[in-house]
Amino acid sequence: MAIAARGRIVTEDRGAWDVLLGDGRRVAARLTGRDRFAAGDRRDLPVVGDFVSLEAPPNEGETWVVDAIEPRKSLFVRRAAGRADEVQPIAANVDLVLVVTAVGPELKAARIARYLQGAARAGVEAHVLLNKVDRAEATASYASGLEALRALAPVTATSAITGVGIDEVVKACEGKTVVLVGSSGVGKSTLTNLLLQREAQPTAPTRARDDEGRHTTRRRELFATAGGGCIIDTPGMREFGVWGSDEDTGPRRGR
Could you tell me the pTM of the whole model? Predict the structure, then answer.
């Protein structure tokens, strides 16, 4: 095999990756067993948002091989769920983290603060979206929610129903690689579709009995926007643990 192309990781699924090539093709890629064995931890593996060089397969339709991960300008990570000593990368080469929460029982400032701390350790700008402000309960919790969140980071109130705040978010995302994070059911995939101006991600309503979210997004995925940027949608997170220290959460160079 010879190095044949450069591309960007757009999805990851059980140790395999889809890569968007410069010519617009989307190909499946893998690592060699040697490179997997050499990885010190999951930060040494390809991550959604990574730029990589690839080796073409000998036969059309076969899987490409990731030859090298290009140096990263940022790497947004969390502590792996239930594992205090393990890091879980979320997205690479991110310019902006959009922390999505919603009016109602989901709105917890302490949880949002952990996401913001993770973004700060990655050296990435963060912005909070207080979503679903069209809800009936918004009148009671909206003002107090905004006050609590604005003490932590810039906040934009949004609604997919009324369109409030959407233009402001679109402007903030122009030309940037943006990752949306938050719990299930807060509207990340709906916001992704609005920012892309197409139905790229499936969505579902929250459960009527308890307003809890549903897992409609199963994997992290990167989408190109018409404005020259990228949106990375992520599955809902039950928890977000800040991993490591300021010194060891920075972007690794890659291979």
Answer: 0.87
